[in-house]
Amino acid sequence: MEIKVVRKVLDVNDTMAEQNRKMFSEKGIFVLNVMSSPGSGKTAILEKTLSFIMPDIKSAVIVGDICTSNDADILAKTNVPVVQVNTGEFGGDCHLAAHVIGNAANNLDLDDIDFLIVENVGNLVCPAEFDIGESARVVVLSVTEGEDKPVKYPLMFRECNAALLNKVDLLPYLDYDKEMAIGYIHQINPDMPVFEISAKTEEGFDPWIDWLKKKVRQM
Ligand SMILES: Nc1nc2c(ncn2[C@@H]2O[C@H](COP(=O)(O)OP(=O)(O)OP(=O)(O)O)[C@@H](O)[C@H]2O)c(=O)[nH]1
Ligand SMILES: [Mg+2]
Question: Which residues line ligand 1 (CB under 6 A)?
Answer without folding.
Answer: 36, 38-44, 71, 122, 166-167, 169-170, 198-200
